[in-house]
User: Fold these one by one.
Assistant:
Number 1:
Amino acid sequence: MSVTCEKANGAVFCRGESMQPLFRPGDRILFDPCRIEELRPGDVILFTPPGEKERVVHRIVSKGSGGIRTKGDANPYLDAWVLRQEDIIGRAECLERDGKFTPVAGGLTGRVLSTFIRALRKSDHLASHVLNPCYRGLARSGLFRMLLPSSLRPRVIVFERDGTREMQLVLGKRIIGRRTAGAGVWTIRRPFRIFVDEQALP
């Protein structure tokens, strides 16, 4: 465990996907309370948006006399709110995943990382646009499902967290899909859809 992680004195669990691939649902995010003067663009912070009740973990995009603007690494647009000291709970210091602790990059390193993530998503979007018809055709054909041994086929796990019911689709040790409470459809990560019989999912 790093020194940074040892100093963190608060923690929350990640539930959304707006900060992927940095955070995944189920990750434990450790944070430290901080003053707004200590924060820099590129830092990842935990806050409660003005007028809202649910806490959010996003990256600082800009900081000025009017306040702080944030954005999720996986989101295409800036958040609508402007944050002030009373909205900020703390700065993310590290994440815990599968018992391993990793420091969360902030400042200039965090800005470079978020720029790289955006570029990666743009290239992925372009590739998806070109290859998506082939991918969907393979998924519908069921060819890869038939080749996969029954012992390795995806399984559904149902659990509750904070009073919310969620279903996860697991292939080996990897979570490849989710269906949260109220969601009408499954979200399945590429390229794992080719191994899933979506008609058989609950």
Note: The chain has a mean pLDDT of 81.
Number 2:
Amino acid sequence: MAKYLKITLSILMISAIIISCKKDSPVDEDGLLITFRQECYVSNFELLGTDFITVRSGTAVIDTVAQTINVTVNAGTDLKNVYPQFSLATDCKLEPKITGRTDLSNLANPKVYTVVSGNRKIRKDYKLYVKF
């Protein structure tokens, strides 16, 4: 009887391990977990120069209702070679991806970044306005 109990417990343990390893959570094309979160906003913004030191002359103003980011940079900043950094709501992602230096020199046409919610159903376009 003890032998059958051990076999039954072993089968139950193996079944539990297999079930717990099952992939229940979907991922997007970037390999990021898709969650239930609907929040979709930019919480902080930083702009770095080629030396990875901030080029902002003040705090960036983020308007989550108008979906704008206004940032003033130091005079003489090379806006063709800057590194924007966004802090987003939990589980959000940014499009287009920032993979290196960015050209923000066209001040007449603000760059548009899209924040995508954790559930990937809500998309908000933020316009980035840079001025000296």
Note: The mean pLDDT is 89.
Number 3:
Amino acid sequence: MKTYPVEEWERIEKVIRSCTLCYVGMADGEGNPYVLPMNFGYEEGVIWLHSAQEGHSITILEQHPKVCITFCTDPKLVWQHEKVACSYRMQATSVICRGRVIFVEEEEVKEMALHSIMRQYSGRTFSYSAPSVRNVKIWKVEVDDLSAREFGVPNRNSLKYKDRQQF
């Protein structure tokens, strides 16, 4: 099985938009990792996240704002030879982004972020009450570094590859 880099921007964005969750990794001052599955919005190189105003992640990020955010398509089980255990692998495409969290306080920007998040899941525009906008913590992550990979791609000579005809 092979792993290939994905470099086409349209394909990378398609992977991000196809995901229902992202995983946000951070580390505290002692280097202890903390990873959260989160809903998100994505617009032009910016990942928008939202949370409660307080919590463990907020405490960490106020001191150490660097994050790593991972997206992954739904994996599919593939193999090169049905009777050879080590030829089995999950096939998917992943995107790994790095950046810094900036907590947004301006209500207009918070509302724009909420629109972005809701478009990811519904494609609709909503209205928000002033208390709901005021009481949500909005995280803005401008992507500084990004890599994408397709993994678990069967060898072109494998029977499974020939059967799938989709690679």
Note: The chain has a mean pLDDT of 91.
Number 4:
Amino acid sequence: MIDAVVFDCDGVLVDSEPIADAIWSEVLAERGYEATEADGDACRGLTEPATYDYFSERADLLPYDEHMAALDALRVPRFERDLKAFPDTEETVSGLAAQGIPLAVASSSRRQALEGKLEIVGLRRYFDAVVGGDEVESGKPAPDVFLEAARRLGVPPSACLAIEDSDNGAAAATAAGMRTIMVRRDGSISPIYASVSEVTADLILAWMWRF
């Protein structure tokens, strides 16, 4: 039986990925590298250090701390101005919270940035636990962040349903022993995981009882 739900953040709860991709592209362009859609797909769901390592093999980047400072100088004000939750998100998490379902977020984002995004869109209050990629030893597709989310909820990973949008994230949740649903907001269907184009509380509750 499934007792808790663990959400990824970017691409599942908040529509942050187009903003983040644009900012990474701007900073990379300053270093003479033109990021492609394939680059974005390769890095989806990875931690920021892993993303930095990926691009450092392709471009002459500033040292990590300087690179991240340049990103944050653009990202923080742009998120504060433009970041939105997906239209289905608040009704879903508020509906699950009203049912007393333990909820967590397990993200590759740094904890501070993750908390900021959830606060900006007004979702932080619904979650019992929030885990960032900088709080665990290994990022997605390793299971660490999902295992830590389950630990903080006090629920076995096998009793958690994970909601993910990236292959790296879904692999991490599955490796943690969680049942996994992929949100494919472009309407595509995962060949591996159960997939939907949007989330609702009723749908998630149905999946919880189905397993």
Note: The mean pLDDT is 93.
